[in-house]
Amino acid sequence: MIDQILAAKDSAVARLAAATSSDDVRAVELEVLGKKGSLTDLKAGLGKLATIEEKKQAGRALNEATTEVSAALAARLGEFRRSERAVQLEVERLDLTEVTRKPGRGHAHVVTQAWQRLEDAFIGLGFQVAEGPEVETDWYNFEALNMPANHPARSMHDTFYVDHGAPGSTVLRTHTSPVQIRVMQTTPPPIYMVMPGRVFRNETTDATHLAVFHQIEGLVIDRGITLADLAGTIESFTKAFFGEGFTSRLRPSYFPFTEPSAEFDIRTPKGNWLELGGCGMVHPNVLRAGGIDPEEFSGFAFGFGIDRMAKERHSINDVREMYTNDIRFLEQF
Ligand code: FA5
After folding, report:
1. Do 155 and 6 fall into the same domain?
2. Within-domain flag for 144
3. What is the Å distance from ligand 1's center to 277 Cα?
């Protein structure tokens, strides 16, 4: 029995030494230690030995043989795994410096396209374009817009504060309206200006709300400007931007910086109304904050969301989709 054990072990060790792949190693494992393996068979024969002493000796020899074969198996398997992995890596190697196809031509993001088309439509109506800073002082973002400290309308804007200067004095602008004040301070009337840009609100995102989004502000200041001019401008813009089949309406609303104030909606050719933004006649306090005499000049302002317009124009279900940067989605526009 002992001779048989040693013979089975020696044969296994020799075959392992001669193995040329991990498959060979697994074949030896099966033939020696598997269910019907040579050492397994011998183990089953232990019970048939005549004396206890014989059983003990054969059992010990079997254990030693099994340990030796298992160690040789593990060592050979480790070697083959390493070399086979090296071969696999070489086969699958990607040369990222190699250009295999011509890179596709990119295009502007769907929101950038809307921004540019909006600017074009307003330039066509005789407006100029201005921009302002994204990090604003509390004064420009709220105070100058007729929202002093503790004004209830401030809570409608969930504000991100910037750790700069006195606590609460610096914000990420919550709308593009502060640019109205900057334009009034630097441009003597008549003013016919649009001011697009990025704005920030500390709010939970959903299908129609983003925390970082875009607005376009409009400001007209001249002598004798009335609500009729506001309604006419909104209507001309609606037709220029959306097409002849669209019309607009104003609905009474409230903003601290305009009086009277309105929401404006557009009607699609299919007959449904979409809310686009807010507007109104510039409040006298706001004109004064911008250094303009409300006795001499009057004006109107409007502001609406560019992302929501892009969403409606392209029938996109969820504004957040535009910012996942999935090229398969963005390529469509
Ligand atoms: C304002 O921000 C005013 N400054 C607009 C204004 C300007 C009124 C000038 C009067 C005169 P409001 O918070 O409603 O108003 O936002 C205007 C538009 O921005 C909304 O109609 C909507 O289109 C867009 N908007 C607002 N919040 C979000 C948001 N979280 N995500 C995407 N778009 C938004």
Report:
1. no
2. yes
3. 6
Residue the block writes with tokens 């005549």: 50
* Total count of domains within the chain: 2
Does position 101 have pLDDT exceeding 80, yes or no?
Answer: no
Q: From the CB of 298, is ligand 1 less than 6 Å away?
A: no
CA–CA distance, 126 with 98 (Å, rounded to integer):
50
Contacts of 137 (CB under 8 A, 6+ apart): 169, 170, 171
Q: Tens digits of per-residue pLDDT, 17-66?
A: 888 888 888 888 888 888 888 888 888 888 888 888 888 888 888 889 88
Is 77 inside a domain boundary? Answer: yes
C-beta neighbour count of 183 within 10 angstroms: 20
Q: What is the pLDDT of residues 118-143, one digit of tens each?
A: 999 999 999 999 999 999 999 999 99
**Residue 52, both tokens:** 């206890």
Q: How far apart are CA 79 and CA 19, in angstroms?
A: 11
On whether residue 9 sits in a domain, the answer given is yes
Our answer on whether the CB atom of 279 is closer than 6 Å to any ligand 1 atom is: yes
Answer with the one of 43, 59, 91 that is the final residue of a domain: 91
- Domain around 21: 2-91
Q: How far is the CA of 173 from the centre of ligand 1 (A)?
A: 12
Average pLDDT over residues 295-307: 97
- pTM listed for this prediction: 0.72
From ligand 1's centre to the CA of 303, what distance in Å?
A: 6
CATH number where 288 lies: 3.30.930.10
